[in-house]
Write a structure and sequence with these properties.
The complex is a heterodimer of chains A (307) and B (278). Chain A has helices at residues 81-92, 108-118, 147-157, 177-185, 224-237, 251-260, 270-273, 277-291; strands at residues 9-11, 14-16, 20-22, 44-46, 63-66, 69-72, 98-103, 126-130, 164-168, 190-193, 197-200, 202-203, 208-209, 215-219, 242-245, 262-267. Chain A is α/β, with parallel strands linked by helices. In chain A, the strands form four sheets. In chain A, strands 3-4-7-8-9-10-15-16 form an eight-stranded parallel beta barrel, surrounded by five helices. In chain A, strands 5-6-14-11 form a four-stranded antiparallel sheet, with no helix packed on it. Chain A starts with 8 loop residues before the first strand and ends in a 16-residue tail after the last helix. Chain B has 278 residues and is of the alpha/beta class. Helices cover 17% and strands 35% of the residues of chain B. Chain B is built from five helices and 15 strands. Chain B has helices spanning 86-92, 127-138, 161-165, 187-197, 212-224; strands at residues 9-19, 25-32, 44-49, 60-71, 74-81, 99-106, 116-122, 145-152, 170-175, 182-183, 205-209, 229-232, 248-251, 255-258, 265-267. In chain B, helix 4 (187-197) runs parallel beside helix 5 (212-224). Chain B is globular, with a radius of gyration of 18 Å. The chains are: A alpha/beta (307), B alpha/beta (278). The A-B interface holds A 25-28, 32-33, 35-38, 41, 48, 56-57, 59-70, 72, 74, 77, 212, 220-221, 249, 269, 271-276, 279-280, 282-283, 286-287 and B 1-2, 4-5, 7-9, 48, 53-54, 56-59, 87, 101, 103, 235-239, 241-250, 255-256, 275-277.
């Protein structure tokens, strides 16, 4: 007897075929992965952060490996809004998965401009506001440090976004819960967390910081337990689906994040190690559901909190 | 259950690990792959041991030392690896029968339509030239004249000399301690040859791969003789296939480009060797 599993997830007016998605900054503009991963196996992808103008990014070295992870300081290098629409989007439209545009700005006006341009555009199924990049002086991060400012920004952007609106929070705050509540009250369809944690490494031969930008964002399995706790806490106050991100490496990590309260997960740094890893995760998730007699993936979400 | 996709990363089984002493080791592997996946000289693989993330989290970019077709379903890929840090140390320790996670071939390679080439290599930078010289001879392009300039600190830093002698027209070796070839840096014999042949009409290109100060010196020499020079740059990278943007290289015309996709082989005239990270 075969059991039909319902893996679909709804976020706002967007339906993802399954809860496994690809994190911003780790999957380019989608097509880079087309030859390495069967994109039918993932629900959607979040683009490299898009700004109004193109950005060159930070000086190299930009990455360094650390225990069970890595630190990056790419600096939001991207092609800019117009090139994204003209050069990237035509190819993105041909891909068999949802595309959520990750955007960031330095000002309210930047976010409004990006939301106006992308918030109701064929091929862009959602917008993720990046309020949390640790690697640029004004990577939207200051909007993610005060719940009142965050609320005002999301409320300003919301009317321009007809597709699903995700808000990506910073983990570099004492308590994420007021931010989750503020984002949702202002109309976000989902809160994404966590972004990378501010970190650095030092080169003992040169006796200098290893990264050209001095500090960067830590990702990979090293941050998974921290992310899991933040998602557990966010779920306590969230009324909308939570998107869990942070060091997901295998199918059992996916299950852990769902149990903690994530309705959707983003796979990030694991793609660098194995671009096909989301297929293995999906396989493992289905097997886990089968073994535990769970027909609908939503039944797993938040289960670790008890009845 | 789902049908898993055809993955471009494979498990490469270690066939042999030849100790080259101070110079490192040569690792021969086999993968199940068709001839269409045969790497071009100058391309690279992302490589790490199959063991867990405790050993090393990210794969390391390693140039192919050689690549040949074994049969319709098998390729033999070899690598020259020297210990620079924990990642390369983990690779050097692999034993026959161990499996390596292999993603490749990746990146731009060297052109194969050259008339004559001068190859300037040092350290692990000899790997793509070993591959290139062998591939030129295998494709029966015997009219291509290959001059190799090969330098190291000492004679023990110059592996593969016999193999290389069999495929190149002339090897100019140099060692800083004078134990093999000319005394000093590899740029000295290059200077001498450029004095003789540099300004005459004979077509040749200069390719270089090795320590950055060496590549910089070679690029400047080539420029002063109006010769095109291609360099193969080594950069830190996380993914190897164009998404992490960790391997940014500053290109004079294009801004930051990706060392893994647009590189690693690039025209030296487009690079600024004064940058701190190089």
């Amino acid at each position: 007897m075969t059991m039909e599993h319902d893996l679909s997830v709804r976020v706002g007016n967007l339906v993802l075929r399954n809860p496994i998605t690809l994190a911003s900054g780790t999957c380019g503009y989608g097509m880079e992965l087309a030859e390495l991963l069967d994109l039918h196996h993932v629900g959607g992808f979040f683009t490299k952060g898009i700004s109004v103008k193109p950005r060159l990014g930070n000086p190299p070295p930009r990455i360094v490996e650390t225990p069970s992870g890595m630190i990056n300081s790419i600096g939001l290098q991207n092609v800019g809004l117009q090139a994204f629409i003209q050069e990237k989007l035509p190819d993105i439209r041909k891909l068999p998965l949802a595309c959520i545009a990750n955007v960031y700005g330095n000002t309210f006006d930047d976010y409004v401009e990006l939301a106006e341009a992308l918030g109701d555009l064929d091929g862009v199924d959602g917008i993720e506001l990046n309020l949390s990049c640790p690697n640029v002086k004004q990577g939207g991060v200051e909007f993610g440090q005060d719940p009142d400012i965050l609320k005002k920004l999301v409320a300003t952007v919301r009317p321009h976004v007809r597709s699903a609106l995700f808000v990506k929070l910073s983990p570099n705050v004492a308590d994420v819960r007021p931010f989750v509540a503020a984002g949702e009250q202002a109309g976000a369809d989902s809160i994404s967390l966590i972004n990378t944690l501010r970190a650095m490494e030092i080169d003992i031969k040169k006796q200098r910081p290893t990264l050209g930008n001095i500090s960067g964002g830590l990702s990979g399995p090293a941050i998974r337990p921290i992310a899991l706790y933040q998602i557990y806490r966010a779920y306590q106050v969230a009324k909308q689906p939570v998107v869990g991100i942070g060091g997901i490496e295998s199918w059992d990590d996916v299950v852990r994040f769902l149990l903690a309260g994530a309705a959707v997960v983003q796979v990030g740094t694991a793609l660098f190690r194995n671009p096909a890893s989301p297929s293995l995760m999906l396989n493992g998730l289905i097997e886990y559901m089968h073994e535990n007699n769970i027909d609908t993936v939503s039944k797993l979400v938040g289960r670790a909190h008890g009845e | 259950m789902l049908e898993l996709p055809q993955m471009e990363y494979d498990l490469a089984t270690v066939v042999s690990n030849e100790d080259l002493g101070r110079a490192g080791c040569r690792i021969r592997t086999q993968i199940k792959a068709r001839a269409s996946r045969l790497p071009n000289p100058g391309q690279f693989a992302m490589l790490r041991p199959e063991a867990g993330i405790e050993a090393m989290y990210l794969s390391r970019p390693i140039s192919y030392l050689d690549a040949q077709i074994v049969d319709s379903e098998t390729l033999e890929l070899s690598f020259y690896i020297k210990v620079y840090g924990p990642g390369s140390a983990a690779l050097v320790n692999c034993r026959p029968g161990d499996r390596l996670i292999h993603l490749g071939p990746l990146g731009s390679g060297f052109p194969m339509d050259q008339e004559n080439v001068w190859l300037v290599g040092g350290g692990v930078g000899i790997a793509p030239f070993y591959h290139l010289a062998h591939e030129i001879r295998r494709t029966a392009n015997s009219s291509v004249a290959i001059q190799l300039f090969y330098g190291g600190r000492s004679a023990t830093d110059l592996p593969f000399l016999d193999d290389l002698n069999a495929v190149v027209d002339h090897i100019h070796t140099s060692t800083e301690d004078g134990t093999h070839g000319s005394d000093g840096l590899v740029t000295e014999p290059l200077k001498d040859q450029l004095k003789v042949h540099g300004s005459n009409g004979r077509e040749f290109q200069i390719y270089t791969c090795g320590p950055t100060p060496m590549m910089k010196a070679v690029a400047l020499l080539a420029q002063s003789h109006n010769r095109e020079c291609l360099v193969s740059l080594e950069t830190r990278m996380a993914c190897g296939y164009g998404v992490c943007l960790g391997c940014a290289i500053h290109h004079k015309d294009l801004g930051y480009i990706r060392g893994c996709v647009e590189g690693p082989v690039l025209n030296a005239s487009k690079l600024d060797f004064s940058e701190r990270w190089l």
